[in-house]
C-alpha cells in the first residue's frame, strides 16, 4: 500500500499541470503497483494490464484537471477509473458486449469521505470476503473483477440464473453488513 | 381493494424488486434489461435507492483487495517516453468566432426540488448511462476522457447537494415544450443539465449552454445528446444561477461559439 503520510497529491498534480515529468514519474512510482495490480486482477494478462496502466497515467498527464483535491482522493479516482477501463478492455478482448457499468461517481464520493484504505483496512476486507460461502465469493469476484453480468456468470458456471442472482445478492448484502459493522458504521 | 391500495402494492412490489437487484447493480452485474429496470425504479423507491450508497462504498473498497503488483521496469520508461512525446501537444482549438444572435430574456420561472437525496438518485441513473462504453476503442477512450473530466465536478456537486435544497430551472422550446432541466445549488460551483427531449443533432454539431444576463450570453460549455434527445452535462457555473436572467441552449459547431450563432433551441428563466 502507498505511504500517504508524506504525500501531497495536490502538489503533485499541480506539478503535472506545469508539465513536470518527474511529478508523473513520482505518481507512477507511488501508485503504479496498485493500478497495475488491479488491472492484472481484471485482465489476467500482463500485456493488457501494462497497456491499461499506461493509459491511466497518460490520462492524468493529458487531463490533470480531471481530478481535484477537494473532490476526493486521487488514488480512489485512479482505482475506480482503472477498474472501468480494465473491464472494458477485457470485454473487448473477449468480444463481449460493452459493459453496462454503474455509478463510478458514488463510489468516488463515498470513498473520499472514508479516505484511502490502508493495509489494515484492505486485510480486513479480504478477511471478510473469505468468511462468505465460497460460491458467493466466486460470484462476487466474477462480477467485480470479471465484469460479468448475472447471465454471463450463470453461463460461465453452468448454473440456473436464479441461483446466480441469489448468490450474488446474498454475498454482497452479507459483505456490506459485515464491512459496515467492522468499520463502525453498521446498517441502521 | 381500492385504487390507492392497488397502487401501493404495486409500488411495494417494484421496490422489492429494486432491493433484490441493487447489490448486483452496484458492481455492474445486472444484465442490460435489469439495469434499465433498476434505473427506472430508483426514483420511485428512494428509501431503497439510498442503500445504493453503501453498496457503492463497498464496491470502491473491493477494488483495493486486488493485490498490488510491481509493474515491469520497462513500463515506467515506456510511460515516460510517451509523456515526452506528448510535450509537443497542441492545445484544443479555441471557439470559432461567429455572428452573435440577440436573444430575448423569457419570463423567469424557478423551481425547488424537495430533497437532495432524490437528485442524487437521478444523477446515479444518468451517470450510469455515461458508462455504457461502446465496443470501439476510440469511443471508449473518448467517453472515459469525458467521464474523467466530469467525475470531479460531480463529486463536488453531490457533496453540495447533500448539504441542502437544490434548485431546478426548466428550459423550454418557443412553444413551451419542456426540453431540459438544470439542477443547481448555491453550495456548489457545478450544476447538472438533464436533457430529456432536445432534438437530435447533426454529427458535426453540439448544443451549447449559455448564461444570460442583460441580454449578454456567456458560454457554459458544449454537450451532445443521444438519438432520443437524452443526455447529461455537468458544468461549472461562474456565479449562482439566480444571478442570471436566463439560461439558453443553442445549436452550435462542435467546438462551440463565442456567442450564439443560431436562435435558441430552449430557454428558461433563472
What layout of secondary structure does this protein have?
The complex is a heterodimer of chains A (188) and B (270).
Chain A: H1 9-17, H2 21-43, H3 46-62, H4 74-93, H5 104-114, H6 119-130, H7 134-144, H8 150-157, H9 161-182
Helix pairs in contact in A: 1-2, 2-3, 2-4, 3-4, 4-5, 6-9, 7-9, 8-9
Chain B: H1 3-26, H2 32-42, H3 46-49, H4 52-62, H5 73-86, E1 111-112, H6 116-130, H7 137-161, E2 167-172, E3 178-184, E4 190-195, E5 205-213, E6 216-223, E7 231-236, E8 246-253, E9 266-269
Antiparallel strand pairs in B: 1-2, 2-3, 3-4, 4-7, 5-6, 5-8, 8-9
Helix pairs in contact in B: 1-2, 6-7
Please describe what this structure looks like.
The complex is a heterodimer of chains A (188) and B (270). Chain A has 188 residues and is mainly α. Chain A has 2 domains: 1-116, RNA polymerase sigma factor, region 2, helix turn helix motif (Rna Polymerase Sigma Factor, Chain: A, Orthogonal Bundle), CATH 1.10.1740.10; 117-188, Orthogonal Bundle (Arc Repressor Mutant, subunit A). Chain A has 9 helices and no strands. In chain A, helix 2 packs antiparallel against helix 3 (46-62), helix 2 packs across helix 4 (74-93) and helix 3 crosses helix 4. In chain A, 48% of the residues are buried. Chain B is α+β, with helices and mostly antiparallel strands. Chain B folds into 2 domains: 3-64, no CATH class; 111-269, Sandwich (Immunoglobulin-like). Helices cover 39% and strands 21% of the residues of chain B. Chain B is built from 7 helices and 9 strands, in the order H-H-H-H-H-E-H-H-E-E-E-E-E-E-E-E. Chain B has helices at 3-26, 32-42, 46-49, 52-62, 73-86, 116-130, 137-161, and strands at residues 111-112, 167-172, 178-184, 190-195, 205-213, 216-223, 231-236, 246-253, 266-269. Chain B has a 5-stranded antiparallel beta sheet, with helices on one face. Chain B has a 4-stranded antiparallel beta sheet with strand order 6-5-8-9, with no helix packed on it. The longest helix of chain B has 25 residues, at 137-161. Chain B is flat, with a radius of gyration of 21 Å. The N and C termini of chain B lie far apart (45 Å). The model of chain B is unreliable at 89-100, 104-122 and 124-135 (pLDDT under 50). Classes of the chains: A mainly alpha (188), B alpha+beta (270). Chains A and B meet through helix 2, helix 3, helix 4, helix 5 and helix 6 of A and helix 1, helix 2, helix 4, helix 5 and helix 6 of B.
Amino acid at each position: 500500500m502507498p505511504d500517504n503520510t508524506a504525500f501531497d497529491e495536490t502538489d503533485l498534480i499541480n506539478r503535472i499541470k506545469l508539465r513536470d515529468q518527474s511529478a508523473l514519474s513520482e505518481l507512477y512510482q507511488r501508485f503504479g503497483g496498485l493500478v497495475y495490480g488491479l488491472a492484472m486482477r481484471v485482465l489476467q494478462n500482463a500485456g493488457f494490464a501494462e497497456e491499461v496502466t499506461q493509459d491511466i497515467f497518460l490520462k492524468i498527464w493529458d487531463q490533470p484537471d480531471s481530478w481535484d483535491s477537494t473532490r476526493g482522493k486521487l488514488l480512489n479516482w485512479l482505482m475506480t477509473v482503472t477498474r472501468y477501463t480494465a473491464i472494458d478492455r477485457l470485454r473487448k478482448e473477449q468480444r463481449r458486449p460493452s459493459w453496462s457499468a454503474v455509478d463510478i461517481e458514488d463510489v468516488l464520493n463515498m470513498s473520499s469521505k472514508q479516505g484511502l484504505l490502508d493495509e489494515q483496512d484492505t486485510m480486513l476486507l479480504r478477511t471478510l470476503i473469505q468468511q462468505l460461502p465460497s460460491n458467493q465469493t466466486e460470484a462476487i469476484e466474477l462480477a467485480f473483477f470479471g465484469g460479468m453480468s448475472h447471465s454471463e456468470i450463470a453461463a460461465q458456471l453452468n448454473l440456473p440464473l436464479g441461483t446466480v442472482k441469489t448468490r450474488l445478492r446474498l454475498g454482497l448484502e452479507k459483505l456490506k453488513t459485515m464491512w459496515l459493522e467492522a468499520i463502525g458504521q453498521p446498517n441502521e | 381493494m381500492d385504487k390507492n391500495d392497488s397502487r401501493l402494492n404495486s409500488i411495494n412490489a417494484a421496490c422489492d424488486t429494486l432491493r433484490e437487484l441493487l447489490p448486483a447493480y452496484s458492481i455492474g452485474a445486472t444484465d442490460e434489461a435489469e439495469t434499465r429496470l433498476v434505473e427506472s425504479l430508483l426514483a420511485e423507491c428512494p428509501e431503497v435507492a439510498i442503500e445504493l450508497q453503501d453498496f457503492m462504498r463497498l464496491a470502491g473498497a473491493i477494488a483495493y483487495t486486488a493485490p498490488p503488483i510491481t509493474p515491469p521496469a520497462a513500463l515506467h520508461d515506456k510511460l515516460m517516453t510517451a509523456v515526452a512525446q506528448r510535450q509537443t501537444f497542441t492545445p484544443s482549438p479555441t471557439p470559432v468566432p461567429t455572428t452573435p444572435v440577440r436573444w430575448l430574456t423569457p419570463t423567469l420561472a424557478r423551481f425547488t426540488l424537495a430533497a437532495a437525496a432524490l437528485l442524487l438518485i437521478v444523477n446515479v441513473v444518468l451517470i450510469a448511462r455515461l458508462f455504457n462504453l461502446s465496443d470501439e476503442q476510440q469511443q471508449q477512450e473518448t467517453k472515459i476522457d469525458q467521464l474523467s473530466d466530469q467525475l470531479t465536478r460531480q463529486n463536488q456537486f453531490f457533496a453540495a447537494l447533500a448539504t441542502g435544497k437544490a434548485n431546478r430551472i426548466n428550459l423550454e422550446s418557443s412553444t413551451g415544450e419542456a426540453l431540459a432541466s438544470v439542477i443547481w445549488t448555491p453550495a456548489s460551483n457545478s450544476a447538472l443539465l438533464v436533457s430529456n427531449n432536445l432534438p437530435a443533432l447533426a454529427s458535426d454539431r453540439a448544443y451549447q449552454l449559455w448564461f444570460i444576463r442583460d441580454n449578454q450570453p456567456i458560454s457554459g460549455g458544449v454537450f451532445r445528446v443521444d438519438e432520443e434527445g437524452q443526455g447529461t452535462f455537468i458544468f461549472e457555473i461562474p456565479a449562482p444561477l439566480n444571478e442570471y436572467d436566463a439560461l439558453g441552449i443553442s445549436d452550435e459547431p462542435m467546438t462551440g461559439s463565442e456567442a450564439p450563432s443560431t436562435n435558441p433551441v430552449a430557454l428558461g428563466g433563472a
